[in-house]
Design goal:
single chain, 222 residues, alpha+beta, five-stranded antiparallel beta sheet
Length: 222
């Protein structure tokens, strides 16, 4: 009887030892799996945010082209639109609901542009808009604002010499910030002109407008 009990105790002890070791192995495997999965998830997230991080190793040496412009956009998290066969040198893209385009017809000279339609603008306001656009353009080095056609649209653009993919890739967001600044300056200038016009009209109607006499009015008749 005792030998059987002793055998049973030894058997249970060995079985318990094997189960504990198996549990430890499974725990270690689970930890390794979780660590590998976490690394894969981080890599996938980085790839989603910067799909072009694994770019061509020779990209730094390549000259500017429409394709390298598209690559620079993707690197910055912006998806260019499908190329238009009618405009092979124009790259279109959107940020939110705003449409932009890059004109690459004369590389390495290029422009980044955004436009807004002007509908039913009064004639008197159109003149002020031309003045505001000219004022903003004269005050900026690479930023421009101009009115299209008969006040059909306002175009803001950044014009630059870009002979390097790396330059565009690394400075794209700064150029987009300049576009935003041009937009802001234009509307501030336009509102200031409207306010000045309003004040001048109020001064005329109130009778406080000072009009200088013509020098001829003080000429002594001989």
């Amino acid at each position: 009887m005792w030998p059987f009990i002793l055998f049973l105790a030894v058997f249970c002890a060995v079985l318990a030892y094997l189960l504990v070791n198996e549990f430890k192995k499974r725990s270690n495997l689970l930890e390794e799996y979780c660590e590998i999965k976490a690394r894969q998830d981080l890599a996938a997230e980085a790839e989603f945010k910067h799909p072009e991080i694994k770019e061509d190793a020779d990209a730094r040496q390549k000259p500017m082209s429409v394709e390298s412009i598209r690559t620079a956009l993707r690197f910055n998290g912006i998806s260019p639109e499908i190329p238009d066969t009618n405009e092979p040198d124009i790259v279109h893209f959107k940020i939110g609901d705003t449409k932009f385009r890059i004109n690459a017809e004369h590389l390495p000279f290029m422009s980044i542009e955004v436009g807004y339609g002007l509908k039913n603008e009064p004639k008197e306001d159109t003149a002020l808009m031309y003045q505001a656009a000219a004022d903003v353009t004269s005050r900026m080095f690479i930023g421009k604002a101009y009115i299209m056609g008969d006040a059909e649209a306002i175009i803001f653009s950044v014009e630059l010499l870009c002979d390097s993919y790396m330059h565009l890739r690394n400075n794209l967001k700064q150029y987009l910030d300049i576009l935003s600044d041009i937009n802001k300056r234009f509307y501030e200038a336009n509102e200031a002109l409207k306010e000045r016009r309003k004040e001048e009209r109020e001064a005329v109607f109130s009778g406080n407008c000072y009009v200088q006499d013509s020098p001829a009015a003080h000429k002594v008749q001989s």
